[in-house]
Amino acid sequence: AATSPPSRLGSSSSSKAQSIAIVGAGPIGSAAARHILERTSADALAQVYVIDGTQAGTRGSHHDLARLIRAADAEGDAKWSVRNAASLAAFAEIERESGCNFFHKSGALVVGPRTFIERAAKAAQTAGCELELLDDVRERFAFLTPATGCDAALYDDSAGWLEPNAMIEAQLEYARRRHSDRIHVVPAAVQSIEVLDSTGGGSGGVFVELSTGAMLVVDKCLVTAGAHTRALADGMVEGKLDGVSVSRRTVALLEISESTAHELEKVMPTLKYRFEEGGGASVSGNEQSKTEATSVYLLPPVRYDNLGGRYFIKIGGGPNDLMPENVSSEEIAEWLASGGDAEMASKLADIGRNLLGGVTFANEGHETMACVTTVGSDDMRIVSSPCKRVTAVSCCLGKAAGPADAIGAEIAKHVVGISDRCIEVERKFAPPSDLQTMRESVSRLGGGLDSEKVTRFVDEYYDVPSLALVASDCWLRTRKVEGAASSSWELKLPVDVESRSGGEREVFREVVGLEHVASELAQILHEPSLSADAWKGVLERIESENSSTTLASIAKFATERITFTLDDCSIDVDSADFGHAVMEVEKLVASPDEIPGAKDEIARIASSIGATPLPTQNGGKLLVYLRKYRQDVIDVLIRSGILKE
Fold first, then answer.
1. What are the helix and strand counts (H, E) for the chain?
2. Where are the beta strands (DSSP E) in 590-627?
3. Which residue(s) pair with 555 in the sheet?
4. Across 145-149, 500-504, 511-515, 615-619, which has the greatest mean pLDDT?
5. Higher-confidence position of 364 and 281
6. Is-contact 415 220, C-beta < 8 A?
7. 13-to-37, 195, 327, 513 alpha-carbon distances in Å
8. Which whole number is the average pLDDT over 28-33?
9. pLDDT tens digits along 120-137
10. Rounded Cα–Cα distance for residues 414 and 18 (Å)
11. Residue 203: what pLDDT?
């Protein structure tokens, strides 16, 4: 149920718990809301406001009855295949936990020239999906009559199509059932977004002005407004959406009788059909542009109540038709209300009729609808403002409705960050002998090099004179990232899972931020004279004066890190300034129940990239440093039973 916000919501950034506004309650926004809530506790994130412009008249590309999903990406992009496969695997849980059904398992076909099919098959294999190759699709699906040379096919019996509005409701209902006190759906359009300046002594935040006249003041804002995203967020992400354009799309609807619809429902999968051999060679642009220009998609029969309860086969595709990069939301709305391009609709209808040669249509005409996609690069963009308070998602290439759940998980990881997930599971490995081979392996598996995470930083570890933290396997440090204005305090605490990698604990709880770390130190060390506020003062003096009689430095070294991402894991390749290198594969989880699954996932990722585990008792950066320079600390670890001699 929708709830209206107060006329002004005060920023919570002065307290521990924060708030976030999600602009856009489409497939991505609703999935991101659920995943953000799953990744955070109420202590970290108090409120999530999902701003739904539908009830205020804002339309998006998801306002239709059907979207397809299959593991095989038509452009052969492994990243999208991985997203699709992950979302398909999640649908049963989302439907069960929400009580809302949205997925129709019809199967899916990719049809076209052999090279087109093999490319899609390779992407699906990367996602762990072994699909069925058909030399002649007509032998299995007799109602299809593809063009000569375009009759090979790839069949996925686990795929199908979904009802986007029902899926949105399922995501939100799932979130409400688990986090009813933290999620609020706000029926309004967004007029403007403004980042508040914190330099004048305030806490900072984001102003979100609503069409209702209300003003939300939140700590963070996520813009998942589809074609409207750039118009809302472009000025705050400083050029990171340059090159992203809105593409006008047209859909044709071919009518069939109710009886024909019921017969086809039993046998017709979704289809992606390239209708030309060597298609796309004369088309400029990236692979998505070339594929769209020479292929169409079709969905099984769907009943459209808004068209008199009649049944239609939906067909879309064709060349991108770009709007100006500075297109306004009003211009987008005008296009969506137009019915689309009549000439393009006729071409789509003709292609559909030619392919579905064994289907009897109700008439020779067709209905049309307008749609939009965002294009401009080979993959989706998740970008943030310099202060990290505003994050925008765009350039989803018309692919995002089906794999929205997996995309929502990616966004949540980007927005929430490490500090809000409690438990880190990691394993250490020997560094790759050839970084370029590593890049190619990760890319082939659907991951990539996150250029924003090629970093250099200095870690300095501290303990009390008695080394009580070391004796408890607790590790207090500051991390100063090159280019950052200040250091951050971090505290790694043991979790009751006794396994080690490279001599260091594989599973630990990480606490980030001066106040949170100070509070934990007060509980761990039980010094009567050192309350949480007193510990905060100790840490602040180290920051400002680099001196303390309470804490002493036990290790300090610089690291150059290259981070790859693959599925939901990070792969960090580290080179320390004292001559040691190591690779770490890590995954963040919210509860101890998720640790075994995370370990399995890390093992799978490590195996897929050919990683070599480090010895149980040696090899991590910190342990190697301590063995070289601080035998006294090593002695404490041995006496405490943390390390073996």
1. 17, 34
2. none
3. 461
4. 145-149
5. 364
6. yes
7. 17, 13, 34, 13
8. 97
9. 999 888 778 889 999 999
10. 16
11. 55
d(CA 505, CA 470) in angstroms, rounded, equals: 12
State how far the Cα of 267 lies from the Cα of 155, in Å rounded to an integer: 13
Report the alpha-carbon distance of residue 180 to residue 172 in Å, rounded.
10
DSSP annotation of 239: T
Question: Nearest-CA neighbor of 137 among 109, 160, 178?
Answer: 109
Q: Give the integer Cα–Cα distance in Å for 10 and 8.
A: 6
Q: DSSP states of 15-84 as a string?
A: SSSEEEEEE--SHHHHHHHHHHHHH--TTTEEEEEEEE-GGGT---TT-SS-EEE-SS-TT--HHHHHHH
- Average model confidence (pLDDT) for the chain? 87
How confident is the model at residue 283, as a pLDDT? 64
Under DSSP, is residue 451 helix (H, G, I), strand (E, B) or coil?
helix
Alpha helices in 162-286 (DSSP H): 164-179, 229-233, 258-267
Report the relative pairing of strands 552-566 and 448-449 from DSSP bridges: antiparallel
The closest alpha carbon to 617, from 507, 499, 509, 491, belongs to 499
Q: Give residue 610's pLDDT.
A: 86
Residue 90 CB-half CA count within 13 A: 24
What's the angle, vertex CA 267, arms to CA 264 and CA 273, rounded to 5? Answer: 90
CA distance linking residue 402 with residue 164, whole number of Å: 8
Q: Band the pLDDT of 14: cuts 50, 70, 90.
A: very low
**pLDDT tens digits, 288-340:** 888 999 999 999 999 999 999 999 999 999 999 999 999 999 999 999 999 89
Could you give the CA distance from residue 616 to residue 635 in angstroms, rounded to a whole number? 18
CA dist., res. 475 & res. 440, Å (int)? 35
> How far is residue 514's CA from residue 505's CA, in Å, rounded to a whole number?
23
DSSP string of 412-439, one letter each residue: HHHHH-GGGS-EEEEEEEPPPS-HHHHH
Q: Which residue has the higher pLDDT, 62 or 517?
A: 517
Q: Give the whole-angstrom CA distance, residue 544 versus residue 546.
A: 6
What is the percent of the chain where pLDDT is above 90? 57
DSSP-derived 3-state class of residue 516: helix
Q: Which residues lie across from 132 on neighbouring strands? A: 155
